[in-house]
Amino acid sequence: MMNNPPLHVDVITIFPAYFEPLQLSLIGKALDKSLVTIDIHDLRDQATGVHKSVDDTPYGGGAGMVMSAVPWGAAIDQVIDAHPGVVHDLIVLTPAGEKLTQAKAHEFSTLSHLIFACGRYEGIDHRVTEFYQSQPQVRVHELSIGDYVLNGGEVATLVTLEALIRLIPGVLGNPESLVEESHSIAASDEGAPDLLEYPNYTKPPEWRGLAVPEVLLSGNHAVIKGWRSQAALTRSKKIAGQTGE
Fold it and tell me: Above 50 in pLDDT, residue 90?
């Protein structure tokens, strides 16, 4: 049986150097092992004129500048044409997008070709989203990493890549560690949100007057499992109460 080809990621940005950290840590190792491939593209390569401008004033007035559809269309077409025969998932980073969740990260980690569009200023001309939503070989995802505004989509793209690449088989040394992570632990009550991870401790057994919970030193795995389940539930309820969920 043939293995599926590794996930390929194209990132389009006006700041390619922002993505140098991808060469570090587990993502860097995943790249070295060809578990995922990533290409970074400079949007200004598609711009014309002396200043290589990629933005203009907004129709209707208002503060700030809007990124032009012309270079974005050229850049996205280029990466689509370089990967024929697959479905292309275009991820447009925007505070107005759907919230990134662990489930969404799992979904992205199973796909073939991701294209990240890193907007800046007041965002990308919305016709870019509208056009590619009409293309049968493209699925468009407007994505947000939280209820706040950043200077651009680069940081949000790094967060999303970190979240999804670690879920690709072979990236983590111990895949069992994914099972008991926050937002991956299923709640026991039907309809309840997934739980946050329980607190973790390591040596020494006492530090600055604070002791490791005695149950964790007992060696009784059944009792430890029960304590961890209760601790995860308590932590989850506390956070839910703070956020009003």
Answer: yes
pTM: 0.84
Residue 107 backbone dihedrals phi, psi, to 5 degrees: -60, -50
Q: How many Cα neighbours within 13 Å face the side chain of 50? A: 0
Helix (H, G, I), strand (E, B) or coil at 238: helix
What SS3 state is found at 141?
strand
Contacts with 98 (C-beta within 8 Å, 6 or more apart), sequence order = 104, 141, 142, 143, 144
Beta-strand pair 113-117/66-67: unpaired
Helix (H, G, I), strand (E, B) or coil at 9: strand
Alpha-carbon distance of 70 to 92, in angstroms, equals 16
| pLDDT tens digits for range 165-182 | 999 999 987 665 555 554
Pairing of strands 138-144, 88-99: parallel
> What does the alpha-carbon distance between residue 30 and residue 104 come to, in Å, rounded to a whole number?
20
Written as one string, the DSSP assignment of 147-214 is: SS--SBHHHHHHHHHHHHHTTSTTSSS-GGGGTTSTTTBPPSSTTPPPBPPPP---SSSEETTEEPPG
